[in-house]
User: What shape does this take?
Amino acid sequence: MNTRLIRFAAADGVLLPGLLYQPRKQTREAAIFLHGNGDSSIFYSAERTNAFAEEMVRRGIAFFPFNNRGAGLIKTLKRRTRTIRRTVTAGMTYEKIRDCVADIEGAIACLRHEGYRRIHLIGHSTGANKICHYNRRRRRNPVGKCILLAPGDDVGIYYDQLGPRRFHPALERGRVMVKKGEGHRLAPASLSPFPISWTSLLDTIDPDGDYNVFPFLDAMRGLGLSKRPLFRDYRLLKKPTLSLFGANDEFCFGDVPRCVDLLRAHAAVPRRFEGVVLPDANHGFGGHEREAGAIMAEFLRG
Assistant: This one.
């Protein structure tokens, strides 16, 4: 296969790096890969990135993983528009999920410029949240199929780790800091294993916010954290969708089958939903990258 390092502009001009893996035989079909949060990077997950690419290319599908503006913890990125060029502070520490819309639009435009016309989205972990958020913001979009790879419940994870006595005060504190215009300040290390601004933390843990796409824990335990309907953004996804989990996913609260059942139950078009659990695999599919890649590629090709 042919592999190229590409730098492209998101819809708002932020420049992002990606890798385009292309079959030697010309194709018009490609899959975009959206990595997860938490200091993630397609370049630092080379074994998984390459394995997924090889399985896609083997089946005649180009593969385009890229680092979105939330990659790493704190980054300085260039932003280019017609009139000005400047830098922006990015990285997981300051990212908001709504930023993904411009990133995905830029990736799609890049692939179209390369001649691809049938384009799919694959989102790993919080990358799956971004697929659903993008789909809500851009209801008329050119995406063919979607793959939710180990979708996660960040609100539930924080709630489970902090407990109600710490979770609710943290949520309220985040709202106060953002309202005061101090959302750029870092939240205490006791609330997150990574440095994270109050704005980004609030965006991530707000039960009524944009990140709460897969409220597995709320649904499992009947916590009533969200005032809005559960799985509201996910239920707008009417495209053919595969959700692939590892049987040992450490972020599924000990019940992967229940997570799959919840997605099946809330699917907008049940006949277009497929849920698969890969035995022995964890959240990152370590040691099972090729198996996961083959399952995804077969779904897209089908």
The two ends are 21 Å apart (CA to CA). The chain has nine helices and ten strands. The chain has a mean pLDDT of 96. Residues 164-179 form the longest helix (16 residues).
